[in-house]
Amino acid sequence: MNKMDLVADVAEQTDLSKAKATEVVDAVFAAIESALKQKQEVRLVGFGTFGTAERKAGIGRNPRTGEEIKIPASTSVRFKPGKTLKDAVN
């Protein structure tokens, strides 16, 4: 499922136009993104939790040349599914 499929599904389930459903989906994504930028956790009970994790800087190796390369520190997004979502998928 891609974003347009999600928008169509939301529009169908809520009797909204596709344009309004697009606004709603975009607003949800923007709210999650904003919270993660502020290092806040987004907990959606039953669905899951979005959070951030810090990765330390390190040394890697280029597989082609064997040359060592520096890997900078970074922040990544993590998602931990909730029990309801896990049970629905199993």
UniProtKB/TrEMBL annotation:
The keyword DNA-binding applies. One of its GO terms (biological process) is chromosome condensation. GO terms for molecular function: DNA binding; structural constituent of chromatin. Keywords: DNA condensation, DNA-binding. InterPro entries: Hist_DNA-bd, IHF-like_DNA-bd_dom_sf. Pfam families: Bac_DNA_binding. It comes from the Bacteria. Belongs to the bacterial histone-like protein family. PANTHER family: DNA-BINDING PROTEIN HU, DNA-BINDING PROTEIN HU-BETA. This is DNA-binding protein HU-beta. It comes from Acidiphilium rubrum.
